[in-house]
Design brief:
By secondary structure, this protein is an alpha+beta fold. It contains ten helices and 23 strands. A hairpin with a 2-residue loop joins strand 11 and strand 12.
């Protein structure tokens, strides 16, 4: 404290100390009406170093309540220090008084004296929410009716501002809730599409306004390893991977490995993938970041890389694409009839070339486009039944036949991307059971889709190669660390 006081001029400190003592003494007193009428004000003149006293006009003084008056016959007491305080104080006295005044101001308040309660702002009134789980067959109109509102109000909501019209897009499994105010009027709606996405609509002065709210999960890397004894999906599940991750892994390596016929007992895999957390709780898994598959002793490594343009794909550590320009198989299913130009037709019982490959699968199984292309035929095609034919570039076409129904948006002239669903397995046309008939033609001539050499997809561009090499080096090093940690944990658990 003495060091702080030395920073100010002595004259100013003396004046400030005098005033603080007077103010503190006044606050501690309970003056009577006559005393109150003759209160004194003190004006500081820092230039002259003086304190001037000025009396108040008794008429201007505020009246004092009877509760503040002293008892009859009891004189108004004054602090002993103030009575005996001389008009002029020495420098040492001034510093001591100021120090005491400052320490008193920071002291703990007297518990016997009532304390003022903090003023709390009026909070908004709580809303009454009604929650409904959307089921198959529910409509927006029926949900509004359940909540006690009519179609007129529904129309005013979906014709509101911003994202409010998105309320019309409902799916089974989602949750919707309606909020009412004290008057029973609709105040807000919340449509929860998933843990991460919701649509919030509130009533405003101009009607109803909607806002889409998307939460970002916290993604943390995780590691899994497994050895195939029967099938990839069983081994993946035993390793703690979901079926979705197992399918994603099969899709990453599917251009190099036929998971129906090429996989052998003893093949093994290692995967680094994302675990997604929300509010500290794991709720889902994300993308595969890197993966290693050993098939018949041959190692294949895939790294997920996003280039400077924001495009993401999987590449080997040398920068070549894991993808081919075409999928080796458009469906994960067993071959029921191979490509054979001398095959005897099972229905007509005559030798008729089988210019494609048949895959037996349950009805409704999705069928993927083998590559990017354009639909040149979509409809009924004689004995092929419901069929889609895709044109890829100038000289390659693929055909998908016997489908139960076409994929969404599949029609003549539409464009498709590799992996898009072009249709679903069925038994339309001249067949003995549900399956997919798949043909691959080059310049109009049929080729065995399981053995034809497929062109590679584009590798990492040269302009991105230096950036990718740095990325690949880091990711492979991380992968090795994950593997070492996993092996140490496995050895520790065995002991």
């Amino acid at each position: 404290m003495p060091y702080v006081l030395k920073l100010f001029p002595k004259t100013h400190i003396t004046i400030a100390a005098s005033v603080s003592v007077i103010v503190a003494a006044t606050a501690l007193m309970s003056p009577s009406s006559p005393v109150e009428a003759n209160r004194a004000a003190y004006a500081l003149n820092l230039d002259e170093g003086s304190v001037t006293k000025a009396s108040f006009d008794s008429e201007a003084a505020k009246p004092q309540s009877s509760a503040d008056k002293p008892s009859q016959g009891e004189p108004a007491s004054q602090p002993e220090e103030l009575v005996s305080q001389p008009e002029k104080m020495t420098e040492e006295q001034t510093l001591a008084s100021l120090d005491k005044a400052l320490s008193t101001s920071t002291a703990t308040p007297d518990a016997s004296r009532p304390q003022e309660k903090p003023v709390v702002a009026n909070s908004e009134p709580e809303l009454d929410w009604d929650t409904y789980k959307i089921r198959s067959g529910d409509t927006l109109s029926s949900l509004f009716s359940k909540a006690g509102f009519d179609d007129g109000l529904m129309l005013s909501v979906i014709h509101g501002e911003d994202e409010a019209n998105e309320l019309q897009r409902l799916y089974a499994g989602e949750t919707i809730r309606f909020a009412k105010n004290d008057a029973g009027e609709l105040a807000a709606i919340e449509l929860k599409r998933s843990l991460l996405e919701s649509l919030k609509i509130e009533k405003t002065e101009n009607g109803f306004a909607g806002e889409k709210v998307v939460r970002e999960p916290d993604a943390q890397p995780a590691f899994a390893s497994g050895v195939i004894d029967g099938s990839l999906y069983v081994a993946a599940r035993e390793a703690g991977l979901s079926d979705r991750l197992a399918m994603e892994m099969a899709g990453i390596f599917g251009w190099n490995i036929d998971f129906v016929y090429d996989v052998r007992k003893g093949d093994r895999f290692e995967v680094v993938y994302e675990e997604l957390y929300l509010d500290g709780e794991k709720f889902d898994t994300g993308n595969i970041l890197s993966a290693r598959f050993v098939n018949r002793g041959e190692e294949v490594i895939a790294l997920r890389y996003t280039d400077s343009n924001g495009d993401t794909d999987y590449y080997s550590p040398n920068g070549s694409s894991m993808r081919k320009a075409f999928l080796r198989t458009p469906i994960n299913a067993r071959v029921s009839s191979s490509f054979n130009l001398q095959r005897r037709h099972p229905v007509l019982d005559v030798v008729r070339p089988h210019e494609g490959t048949d895959y037996a699968a349950p009805p409704g199984t999705p069928i993927k486009a083998a590559g990017d292309g354009r639909v040149i035929f979509a409809g009924w095609k004689g004995g092929y039944g419901r069929t889609v034919v895709l044109q890829h570039g100038d000289n390659i076409t693929t055909l998908y036949a016997h489908m139960s129904r076409l994929g969404r948006g599949i029609r003549n002239g539409s464009r498709v991307k590799q992996g898009d669903t072009v249709g679903h397995v069925g038994s339309s046309g001249m067949v003995t059971g549900p399956h997919l008939h798949y043909e691959f033609r080059v310049n109009g001539s049929p080729r065995n889709s399981r053995t034809v050499k497929l062109p590679d997809a584009k590798p990492v561009p040269k302009s991105e190669l230096a950036r990718f090499e740095r990325f690949a080096k880091q990711e492979v090093a991380k992968f090795e660390l994950f593997r070492q940690d996993y092996q140490q944990l496995a050895l520790a658990s065995d002991e």
